[in-house]
Amino acid sequence: MADRGASALSLPDDWPAHPDPILALNRMGSFDWDLDTGLMQMDAQAHDVFDVRPDEYDGHPETLAKRVPPDESRRLDTAVSQALKDGSENYGAYFRIRRRDGTLRWTHTQGYIRRDDTGRPRRIIGIIRDATQELGESDARRDQAAKDEARRQQTSVVELTTAALAHARTVQDVIDVLKDTHGLVHLGATSLVMGLVEAGRIRLVAEGPSDSFVPGTRVTRIDEPYPMSEAVRTLGPCFIESPQEFAERYPILWPHITGLDITSAAYLPLIVQARPIGAMGLLYSDRYGFTPEERNILVALGSSIAQSLQRAMFYEQEMDLAQGLQQAMLPRTIPSVPGADVAVRYRAATIGGTAGRDIGGDWYDLIPLPGGRVGAVIGDVQGHDTHAAAVMGQLRIVLRAYAAEGHPPATVMARASVFLHELDTDRSATCLYAEADLSTGVLQLVRAGHIDPLVRHTDGSCRRVTVPGGLPLGLSAEFGRLDYPVGTIELDPGDTLLLCTDGLVEQPGADLDDGMRTLTALVDTGPDDVRDLADRLIDVAAERGGDDDVALLLLRRRGPDGPRSGRRLQRHVTPGDPGALAEARHMIRAAVTGWGAGDRADEIELVADELITNALMHTEGSAVVTLRAFTGSERRLRVEVEDSSSALPRRREAGDSGVSGRGLLLVELLTDVWGVEARGGGKAVWCEFVVPGRG
Questions:
Q1: What is d(CA 249, CA 270) in angstroms, rounded to the nearest whole number?
Q2: Residue 299, exposed/middle/buried by CB under 10 A (0-12, 13-18, 19+)?
Q3: What is the secondary structure of 434-446 as a DSSP string?
Q4: Which residues contact residue 115 at a Cβ distance below 8 angstroms, ignoring those fewer than 6 apart?
Q5: Which of 154, 450, 519, 603 could form a disulfide with 432 if both were Cys (CB 3.0 to 4.6 A apart)?
Q6: Could you say which DSSP state residue 75 is in?
Q7: What distance in Å separates the CA atoms of residue 228 and residue 432, rounded to the nearest whole number?
């Protein structure tokens, strides 16, 4: 084509009689073509470019036909004719010349067209030069640029794959990254196979296209004649550059994969710290052979994948250990509770939105207690690691032991805090402990820095129960603040108590109160059955994700299965616990009120207080107070206080010296009937109150 962008030649009129010496210095020949006569004069340098002697050229351009191949001549004529017709001032073109030794050399010409006043072209003056070196250098630059681009692309493969693998936490994550459509496109492979070394064998963990599994290759020995085994055995890559080579080197494997149209393959050992952990095969169906650069890139890629696999294997081993530890620390089974339906759930945290699981210190427990009562526990040890799980297990066991010994809730929580402090760990824990008497529906709750419980009523409405609280376990002992106030609520038949850890409530960027309101609304609209409701809440937590684990305990009080006369409430009161007597009084008042005998609550509480105080003052050991409800011809409430002394109480008259024993006068005055019973090595002082209404 005409080179319209070239600068117009500015030459003297007598050119080429005195050619510019610069042309000669630059190995350029010149020509002057008279279009009227058709003659074209050339200087000596131009003769040299065309490889013709002066005596071989007669001034007619047609004479040069033996040096310009026909295709090149037509292309050059077209460029010149087009420039003459369209009014161009100049043109330029590359064409090939066949020298006298038969070789083809690239040449470049540039001509300046001189026209008369009418615009008719009359003369072309120009230059011609050998462009072989120029185009050769250009080709070399293009080849080098292509190689550089290929190298950048290959390096990009490693970088892209390494970046994607940085987010892989499990072995399956690594496989998914490599088998992903975009991943295979980056790798340039059609499919991928991978095996891991286990106990001296190679276990296949990923095979190529679906339905491409080769029977007998799920687990193979390292000494078997397979390319993956060879890569592991020799610690070197195995490159297969053609189907014929594949068939010759691996005749056992090849017949099973001929349908995959494999043209070449690269099997790379996955080596970490000079030890093979597996091998990977990349199978190609559109290429033959590998350049040295491609081989180096694939080896580097194998090293990157090996590092990711090792991290994933370590992570899985750690998680297996941690999850096994945590599962061992959580209760294996939850005991059946007469009068209640119970559901518990646990969900480990999900970190980074990935499929990986993390471990935490959340736990739940359900503890059978003396007198038919039950203790419900929910707690959360600070941290997400094996240490948190270990602390959780120890704390769960001691809290269970303190509760089973019959200690009141506040004492259970205080002793657990002291234990955690003396454990000499840097962890604290939040906890909520609820002691329930399902015959009466009376619940006593203590809270150590934990979130409040919820209660769902029979009409489906749900409310947050505000429970006074103390410091988290461990911290309260450290700061000497072991007071845990007790809150009392009542569960009517059909009501459900919900205890959970903050992983079910807290959401990034949201206030805790907002989370509690969201949870309350979710429980409002949830299923009636506690197991279905628990599943629904855990599913919501799983959908939301989050970096905290979740423990959940639901306890629904059933309606009475038999006569109401079977209701009983019992409490152990120890001499060394200053708050135990007050808690017992509070429990009795709440139970009496809950049983519909609130009119006599003051009298019953006063009498019970007197009997418990006598037992603690005049005997050794703890006292056991029991409150029973009976129905029949009349409705009665019975209070029993049992101690370990066989000495019977003696009522004193007003004239006797001292003040001891005068409380029995009060008992006799306020009760309808009272008495003393021998109980093994001790006794029980009892009294009954007739209350209005029927059971």
A1: 21
A2: middle
A3: EEEETTTTEEEEE
A4: 121, 122
A5: 450
A6: H
A7: 56
Cβ(284)–Cβ(264) below 8 Å: yes
Sheet holding 568-573, edge to edge: 568-573, 623-630, 635-643, 682-691, 673-679
Tell me the pLDDT tens digit for each residue of 297-318.
888 888 888 888 888 888 777 7
Whole-number Å distance between alpha carbons of 505 and 520 = 10
Farthest-apart Cα atoms in the chain, separation: 165
**Is the CB of residue 28 less than 8 Å from the CB of residue 111?**
no
Rounded to an integer, what distance in angstroms lies between the CA atom of residue 412 and that of residue 473? Answer: 11
User: First CA to last CA across the chain, in angstroms?
Assistant: 113
- Which residues does the chain have with pLDDT short of 70? 1-26, 146-158, 180-187, 208-216, 322-329, 349-359, 371, 508-509, 546-547, 559-568, 578, 632-633, 650-662, 679-681, 693-695
φ, ψ of residue 308 in degrees (nearest 5): -65, -40
d(C-alpha 266, C-alpha 238), whole Å: 6
Beta strands in 484-631 (DSSP E): 487-490, 496-500, 550-557, 568-573, 623-630
Task: State the DSSP code for 241.
Answer: -
- DSSP bridge pairs for 572: 624
Residue type, position 657, single letter? S
What does the block give as tokens for 351? 């970190």
Look up residue 205 and give its two tokens: 């963990």
* Residues 484/414, Cβ–Cβ less than 8 Å: yes
